[in-house]
Amino acid sequence: MENIPEQFAHIKGWGVDADPENEPTYPMKHYTGDDRRRMNYERPPRQTNGIEVLHSNERPGLTAVYGTSSPPSGLSGVIRRFAFRFSEGSFGHWLPLILADRVNMIEGIFDDLRHGFFPNIMAERGWKAEWKYNKKGLAKRALIGALIATAAIVLLSKNKGPKKRQLAASDDDWLHRW
Amino acid sequence: MLAMNYRGPFRVRADRNKPYPEILHPNDAIVRVTRSCICGSDLHLYHGLVPDTRVGMTFGHEFTGVVEEVGPGVQKLKVGDHVLVPFNIACGTCPFCKQELYGNCHESNPEATAVGGIFGYSHTAGGYDGGQAEYVRVPYADVGPEVIPAWMDPDDAVLLTDVVPTGYQAAEMGGIKKGDTVVVFGAGPVGIMAAKCSWLFGAGRVIIIDQLDYRLEFARTYAQCEAYNFRSLGDPVLFIKKTTDYFGADVCIDAVGCEAAGSAMQTLTGRKMLLQAGSSTALFWAINAVKKGGIVSVVGVYGPTGNLVPIGNVLNKGLTIRANQASVKRLLPKLISHVQNGYIDPKGIITHRLPLEEVAEAYHIFSQKLDHCIKPVLVPAAA
Questions:
Q1: What is the pLDDT of residues B318-362, one digit of tens each?
Q2: Distance between CA atoms of residues B255 and B196, nearest Å
Q3: Model ipTM?
Q4: CB distance B8–A44 less than 8 Å?
Q5: What is the pLDDT, as a whole number, of residue B382?
Q6: Do A70 and B56 touch (CB under 8 A)?
Q7: How far apart are CA B101 and CA B325, in angstroms?
Q8: Residues of B with CB below 8 A from A63's CB?
Q9: Which residues in chain B have Cβ-Cβ distances shorter than 8 Å to A32?
């Protein structure tokens, strides 16, 4: 920091209006000048363990500590590794991560089944609370769901109808031609 | 051990097979959780809005607990100490921590440089398992955790890990002058606390805006402020202009973040199609409702990509936008004193107390705003 004035000695008026009291981030930040040291500070001891940890390409390596929950694995892991090739300012980083999260959700279901556990999705969605506190809302949702399902079945069966008739007609034509 | 286990958007379960956490670094501690809240920002994870939220993770960044084990480098904490653990994971030695920006630590999150490490808040915030569990690993145990004073109720202590400091810092960043009109968007726990804390800085008028009448009613009583439902106001920006003699509020606080309601376009592009990092309706309103030269304070959480905000108005009105994750450690001494003096009653916002086994129901109640829920707390059986 001391060599900064010398460094800018050729610039007339450098720093004449610098005011250490003008610190708009105070009190969030108690300015100490440590920013000038950049990454040259005494780092804490590093955590070591054998799991795979992805790190942002906007930093030179891992931080001294990190979480070890759910290391990347499977197809979602492949997508996450791809995402980390891009910087944090890029959609190429975040959009694949969202995709990986959705893939990971499906992997989670298969993983449960592989371990002989059938996930109770209604319980995981906390529907017991819906039954306790919002019976009316639950009934409304069930009714809407039933109506949509019925409408879908009716529409699908209608769509199948004309095709059959068309086939029958063409069969007739075929017969008539012979 | 028993722990919350995330299985995908809107799906969590209480899992008895989560491995007991281990000391992985000389400055780690293992803490037996005594209280753990669900935060409004946990709902962004629960709703699948935060990228790199992996299946199998345990959420929870608001917790208290008893120290069960410490690493060889831990000097201050002792086994048996009952501590409140700030949601930020901070090393205490990087340039940001040295300048009290404990929410911006550079040695706790390898996966993103824009955010420091946070307990149980996706791999975007470091990939740490959180405190909605019986036990949790706490890195840098000598830096963040604070021994709970003997006189303090544990329910007050758990709210000092996030809600109270975040609400307080929202008001602090507003640079409130005596007599100022402060408008808080969002009557969730943080918004209510921001409204309450605005008085401590000498606000002359505090207004809170939300869409849920039961929360507005709660805010009126708890934070002694004016409360309005934007559904009945029509245009909340116009309402604020009119009620401030067409001048604009002195300070606007966004305490909502990425799941704001109130604009069909924002909801569609932000929350449904994920074309932006959530819906920025509250920030949009804050920028437009504040006076020229005013201050907008942002504590609502947004995703990492980008949002549609009227940045042209920020320029033309000469606004100052101040934002950060709360620096909990910096604020704790003052806030503990405020609780002792009766200026803040943190536990007053707790409305629901559930056993950890019922974590799925707790998330559903909070997410769907059932049973007039303001703040749910999970209590493990081992607490």
A1: 999 999 999 999 999 999 999 999 999 999 999 999 999 999 999
A2: 13
A3: 0.90
A4: no
A5: 81
A6: yes
A7: 9
A8: 106-110, 117, 126
A9: 95, 98-99
Nearest CA in chain B to A125: B11
Instruction: Convert the pLDDT of each residue in B55-94 to its tens digit.
Output: 999 999 999 999 999 999 999 999 999 999 999 999 999 9
Task: State the best of A41, A58, A63 to mutate against chain B, taking most chain B CBs within 10 Å.
Answer: A63
The model carries a pTM of: 0.91
Residue B19 is classified by DSSP as P
Domains of chain B: 3-162+327-379 (3.90.180.10), 163-323 (3.40.50.720)
Is a pLDDT exceeding 90 seen at residue B304?
A: no
Give mean pLDDT, residues A139-161: 86
d(CA B212, CA B187): 8
* DSSP letter assigned to residue A119: -
How far is residue B197's CA from residue B55's CA, in Å, rounded to a whole number?
A: 37
Instruction: Give the H or E element holding residue B354.
Output: strand B352-355
The helix/strand count (H/E) of chain A reads as 6, 0
Over residues B306-326, the mean pLDDT reads 95
Indicate the domain borders of chain A: 52-59+70-119, 120-157
**Mean pLDDT of all residues in B201-225:** 97
Which among B277, B279, B129, B6 is positioned nearest to A98, based on CA atoms? B277
Q: Which residues pair with B32 in a beta bridge?
A: B66, B135
- Please give the structure tokens belonging to residue B54: 């992996």
A47 → closest Cβ in B13, B25, B305? B25
DSSP character at residue A47:
P
Helix (H, G, I), strand (E, B) or coil at A110: helix
Task: Report chain A residues whose CB lies below 8 A from the CB of B57.
Answer: 69-70
Encoded tokens for B76: 């201050």
Nearest to A69 among B98, B128, B361 (CB): B128
Q: Which residues of A117-148 are buried (b: 16+ CB within 10 A; e: fewer)?
A: eebeeeebbbbebbeebbeeeeeeeeeeeeee
| Contact status, residue B382 vs residue B239, Cβ threshold 8 Å | no
Q: What's at A50, amino acid-wise?
A: G
- Cα separation of B140 and B117, whole Å? 11
Render pLDDT for A101-121 as a digit per residue (tens, 0 to 9): 999 999 999 999 999 999 999
Phi, psi (deg, nearest 5) at residue B209: -120, 130
